[in-house]
Amino acid sequence: MPPFVLRSPEVLLSVPTPADIDRIAVVCTDPAIAEWTTVPSPYTRADAETFVTGMVVDGWARETMFTWAVRAPGRPDGTVLGMMAIGLIPGGPGDAHAGEIGFWTAPDARGRGLTTAAGRLAADWALDPSGLALERLQWRGFEGNWASRRVAWKLGFRYEGLLRRHGVRNGTVCDDWIASLLPEDPREASEPWPQEAPTS
């Protein structure tokens, strides 16, 4: 499947290109991205190059991982403000009819609703019969990643529980949260926002 653009009045999604490598390399050194995602840490320019020219290209070619750079509306080659991906889950219900959403946001783009807008575009495409036609789209986050969980909540993902010792965070086994979105679910928060644990 050749890469394509998704757009709304709030945001534009287009495939990251070699011109984005330096920006991605800088953004992915952010401590929050290192703490809450699975990107390599410490992150180098070589990691960004491998991601853009290898993982992204291969994912689209194999139709197993669909990755977009999040940009402001307008130019498909604008500054990278985040990353959004839909990956297929092997052995999911109905054969390749389950997927997972993943994302990160650059520090200078947080708090503007861009990730939620980008997630809505990607989720709608993944669940639409004319898109991937998935029967289930899931979100997972390391326990304690309230920023990511809030995005999933705004998109209508329904919290399903805690996966004990399911994730690996900075080389340490940890618990994951999991939530799901089905084609018939409303694309808006449909359950109360959980009480965040106090920070020490």
Automatic annotation (TrEMBL):
Q: Name one GO cellular component term.
A: cytoplasm
Is Isomerase a UniProt keyword of this protein?
Answer: no
The domain of life for this entry's organism is Bacteria
Question: Pfam families, alphabetically?
Answer: Acetyltransf_3
Q: Which residues form the N-acetyltransferase domain?
A: 11-183
Give UniProt keywords alphabetically. Answer: Transferase
Q: Which GO terms describe its molecular function?
A: protein N-terminal-serine acetyltransferase activity; protein-N-terminal-alanine acetyltransferase activity
UniProt protein name: GNAT family N-acetyltransferase
UniProt source species: Isoptericola sediminis
